[in-house]
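Q: Could you write out the predicted structure for this multi-component system? I'm mainly interested in how the pieces pack against one another.
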Amino acid sequence: MVTKNSADRDPLVVVTREGLYCPKADAYIDPWRPVETALITHAHADHARPGSRQYHCLASGAGLLTERVRPDSLSTHDAHEPITMGALTVSWVPAGHVLGSAQIRLSDGEQVWVVTGDYKRTADPSCDPFEPIQCDVLITEATFALPIYRWPSMDQVMDDLCQWWDHALLKNRQPVLYCYALGKAQRIMAELALRTTREVCIHPTIAQLLPAYLDQGIPLCPWHVLTSGQKAPPGTLILAPPGAQGGRLITQFRALDEAMASGWMQIRGVRRRRALTQGFVLSDHADWDGLLQTIKDSGASRVLATHGETRVLTDYLNRMGVEAARLSTSFGQDEDTA
Amino acid sequence: MNFIGLLWALDRTTKTREKHALLVEFLTTGDAQEVAYGCTHLLGQQSVTGQRRLLRETAVSHLGDETLFEAAYAAVGDLAETLSLLINDPEAVLDRTTPVIDDWLSDIAAIQSAPSPPEALRHRLSQGPAFANWVFLKLWTGGWRLGVSQGLITNALATVTGQPQSVIAERLMEAGSPDRSWLSRMKTPVSADERQRSAVPFCLAHGWRPELADTSSPDEFIIEYKWDGIRCQLIRAQGVTRLWSRGDQEITAQFPDVVEASQHLPDHCLLDGELLVMDSGRPAPFQSLQTRLNRRRVSRNLLNSHPVEFRAYDLLRLAGNDYRETPLHARRALLFTLPVAHSETLALTSWEAVDAARAMAATVGAEGLMLKSRDSLYHSGRKQGVWWKWKRDPMTADVVLLYAQAGHGRRARLHTDYTFGVRTDNGEWITVAKAYSGLTDTELKHIDRWIRQHTIASFGPVRQVTPTLVFEIAFEGIARSTRHKSGIALRFPRILRQRLDLSIDDADGLSQFETLLDDSQ
């Protein structure tokens, strides 16, 4: 067991201007400025930024990272494969967030620190499941760290989604589901493939990311790519990133029924602000119970929260007798990724 | 379709036509008790049970942590919704057909009389799906925020009953208790006897348009001051006085002094007028009236310090005769024969004189002028081209954003509730107004981001920001206040625009407000 003092005296991760820095490995985790060595948890834009010299990531995430960042030099690693970097042993452990997402485990032989990146504990057919890791210090996300966020079962969400889809078609409307282009869209396509023979029509930005999924052998439902001036094939659901709402590719359809899949849809006001008829509570982040379970599973004597409702989480943990503090990072600035 | 089914579907559409169809479906297929209770609740006619404290206690005891509850509530922005998300059975199936209201009303009674109401409510919620819990809890708190107006419900009732909307509107005023015969009562026209006891739909005014002066002359209108109080119909029938406000709420109990003063009015009369707090013979600012509102008991002291007068401007019924189809000038002639304070007709013969009177309105405690066609009938609702309101110009000031809080309803998670301040002569910041409306969604989003980046301290859900952004606000009046540290209270403040061209040094100081205060008294 590491005491508070040794973690303080000898931290494995500190926040610098460039990002989360590991002094003993001279490497950064998800740096927000270009650095020499970048250890990447996953390919979302707030975690994987271009410009660094040497990138490292989980092997299953290489396709997405290449598509998004186009690194000059990329080393990929299998899950749990121990890599020696300076005085540290570093390994990537699946985080269940999106394809190829990982937590990064750091050990100097005395202490173990884990940086979770973004993660979820609910099943997702488009990526490897989250694995809890024991550690001394846990650096966690806190996007949905409020007790109002508890995710419904996937069966329930997919039933509701298909019902809404059919109802829209019945009313002669084109159903459009807004979902983040990297991860959420493919998760929905994989869930559909598991359950139905339904087909979707996808926005080009989603299509661009499909090869990375096909390379990893993820089964997806049949799809068509949305093009300007052409109707979506009858009966299909349009999947588009939230930024496409109001854009020409979407507004070319006169009668729309628009919905969104996101953890934020838990709150009525958020859905209504976007003038959506329906919101599906479907998140790639851990809900309140998931965050607390992860903290418990880790056995960490200290918890640091990077982004989201960090104050709520750390204040609560402190009141519960768990030492916790906030880290100021640049993660989680795009709400739509949730 | 049950009440849950109705709300579930209403919550999933933004189109008025679909909402109308859903209400019609509910009225025709719903259980009679469910329909009666549901409609009156959506209309806001059910008295709110005032159980917000029970809801809070339940949430806090469930979480075992008050701070956590406050954070959750701040994020959701709605008490009933927060609780429904905190306590529910995620496996429970949402039943959208079986009538629920009967069971719910007995559940509510059982919870209220349980040895530990929070424990009983928590147990009840732990068995229901989140959406059903939300509906159940909204019965306790009111405030649906569904975009279902009274007009929409009146319209649906008209479609279902085959009655004209005016009959439905009148029926709703005197609908009685929401029992199984409520809907069938909607189908029966109001009887002559009932009519004597009921209020009528209010005749409403449109905002004056200056170009109207080009095609009309002031003597076509009866011009009077626009009083800044509470619009009210006073009904005297069978020796009993009743007061009705615009929201179809009976407010008689809150104004015993008005009831007392009405004893000399003849039986069977209905007057339209304004409730005003009087201060040495002159109407006091609206803020004084607020101290008289929503009190369970009105103390003798309050009656003495804030006496309320009913100032009549129209007569709609007298000795059993309905005068709504009689021209206004004749109605007013009848009104002036009654022993009641009334709103004087202003003798103004030129538009210049009208404009001057409007500018002077504040000096008599009015907020502008009313211009009503001399021959106008008393219409139901807002009829075009008959009654006009011409407010005096609002006062404005340039103030600085000091605090922000996330909004409610569709503004949840966006910092849209602003507190503005100005500097005292010593350079100290002091808050003067809270305002919510007046900016576009794009502006709100932009400012929300700025607020997140410039927060210097947080107090629960409230963020204190670096004094930087200047806004021009408008307000209808200003009064001295002992409740506010600044010593002033603004009436109906709203944001006109962000003043990107001004820095905090260009903003107004507290002394400017003092000057306005002197001018308006």
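A: Regarding packing and overall arrangement: Chain B touches chain A at residues 11-14, 63, 65, 67-68, 71-72, 75-78, 81-82, 85-86, 90-91, 145, 407-414, 441, 458 (CB under 8 Å).
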